[in-house]
Structures are given as structure tokens and as C-alpha cells.
Fold each of these.
Amino acid sequence: MSSNERKVTCLVCPRGCIMTVTSDLKVSGNFCARGIPYALQEVKEPKRNLTYVVKVAGKETPLPVRTDEMIAKHLIPEVVKILRQTVVQAPVAFNAVIIENVLGTGVNIISSAELK
Ligand code: SF4
């Protein structure tokens, strides 16, 4: 591998192809076409889904939450800080928006469970 190439492990499916992206953004090592946009995104601005929990007022058990789209990886520690300070009130519907447009990213934090 030259210093101008990057290795990227595709996380789109469990096969986990190890791809190579060259400096002129040519992708190889992908078994299927879905790996290409993933590899290019990973080189430009890596993104991840985030799952976490938030406190529920008056309850011991926290509420599981997640991003409704992938979010830039470098923002995840900042989002986790916000989620640690977040307290929700029951009831909460499944998929309810807990934090809209977190950090101005256009991504919402939504409930992964129903809370009665
Ligand atoms: S390139 Fe295609 S087959 Fe390989 S891990 Fe990605 S989605 Fe799966």
C-alpha cells in the first residue's frame, strides 16, 4: 500500500470487505457497489450511527436513544456530552424525537423504545 492509499473496512454488511481508496478516489476491494460510497464517505468525513441512553425523571431505568441518521464521527463525543445531561419525562413514544437537529447537523436523537 502506498502512503497515498487508505484502507477502509466496509461496515455496510457483515462481510466486512477491506477496501483500498487511492488519492484519486478510486476504490478497490469492494465485493459489491454499496462499498464505494461508504469508502468515499469514510475518507472524506467518517460517519457513524450512535446509540446511547438518557435519564428519565423519577425512574431508575434509562431510555435507549439513537441517531436517526449517521452523524460525523468527530461530533460523537460532543453529542454524548449532551445526552449525559438530558433528562426526559415519561411518557415517550417509540421513535419520538428527543433532541431535534443535534449540534445543527440535521440529525435527530430519537427514542429506541416506548416509555409509559
Ligand atoms: S462492499 Fe458490499 S459486500 Fe463488501 S462489506 Fe460492503 S456492502 Fe458488504
Amino acid sequence: MEVVILGSGTFIPLPERSSPSLLVRSEKANLLLDIGPGTLRQLSKAGLSFTMIDYVLISHFHPDHTADIIHLLFVLKNTDPSFVHPVTILGPSGTKDFIKGLQNAYRGHLNLSPKLLRIDEMGKKSRRNCKDLIVNSYPVKHTSESIGFRIEDISGKKIAYSGDTGLCEDVVQLCKDVDLAILECSFPEEYLKSWKIDTHLSPSDAGKIAKEANVKNLILTHLYPECFRIDIIKRCKNYYRGNVIVAKDLFRINI
Ligand SMILES: [Zn+2]
Ligand SMILES: [Zn+2]
């Protein structure tokens, strides 16, 4: 599998970090994991196109993870059908209502034929076949609907993506023995502690999860500017001895 980080940032507009999204590619499938504002433009910057997307996996409904759904549906609706192929949106429970709400707000300009758009709600622990990839959802600690995704290819390689989450046992299970874990890393622990936030991870939390789950490689993403006031790799490596990469937009890795 190839992973392309499209957005390594958050809802804060920054020139160098777009909102959350990444692409997982196999021989047969192209999966977009989250689709924050600017995702389609990031795809084009990576030399790729929205027309290649087979599946959009949504971790939760926060706008920084979903806003470019609007752009995707609108551009699909207005593109010559011979250039596009069907897209399946896989999301947590409530995804059908969420998309319907957007379609109503945009007065039908996002309505696609059922041949072009399929919406599939995953439970908190469910499994789907996406062409040559297997996707499993796991509950995570963020909003009531939030899920993370574990993706496995036919050779048995495994990638885990946390979406947004706090530290919890489920996220350790999500990451268990994967070749690559892509974990959110929002703020250093002193900020989370002083704001009493337990629905995001610090670099130390990400390190603890990676160690406990026996992860082979770790990417830290969903980085707020506060993360760059400290050495996040050092904080993470206090707990985890494996390979740690700080995500950058358009970074690519093969697993
Ligand atoms: Zn969120
Ligand atoms: Zn977020």
C-alpha cells in the first residue's frame, strides 16, 4: 500500500498544513481517509485527481474532517460521467443523515444518482471489503460517533488511522501490531492537561499507544501549532523506540 498525506494540520488555516486527509492506495483501490477543507486541491498538488477516488472513509463529522465532501459531490455532479466512477462514502452511524443534510442545504446541487454515490454506515466494530483491501472500524474517544480505521491488504500489511481520539484502550486495539499507525497528535500534554481535554492525543500519548500496540512505524499528524513549540519526536520517543515520522503535507510512504 502507498499512503499519501494530503493534510497534516487541523482547522487552523496554515499555508504549509492543510486540514486532515490522507490517501491509501493499493493495486485496485483508492481510499480517502477524511476529507477536510482543501483536500481535492491537495490531491491535485500531489499530481492525483478526485476522479480516482473509490471510497471516502469519514472518521467523524467535525468540519475539519468533512468539509470537502461538498466540493467532491459538486465536482462529481458536474463532470462528464465517462470520466468518473462510483464513490462509496463509508462513515459512522448518522452518515446518511449528514449527507442528506448537506444535499438539502445546497438545494440539490450535491444530489448524485445512486449509481454514482453509495453511502454505507459502519458500526463501531464492523468490517467491509473495499476491492482488494479490508477495512475494519473501531470506536475511538472523541465525539459520540467517532471511529478509527484499520486497513489490511492481500499481503497482510496493516495500517491504522485514529481519526481524532483521546487515549483509550480501543485505540490500542485499533493499532495492535500494525505496520504503520497514523495517529493524531494535537497538543503537547501540558496544554491538554490545563484545558482539561481528554479527547485528543499528545505526542507522549501517541508514544504510549505505539509501544503498547507494538506498532512498526508511527506517523504523527493533526498537528496544532502548539506542537512546534516543543520537540514532539523526543516526547514520543520517551515511550516508543520505533520509527517516528512527523507528517508533512504531500509526504508519501510505501508499506
Ligand atoms: Zn474532531
Ligand atoms: Zn480534527
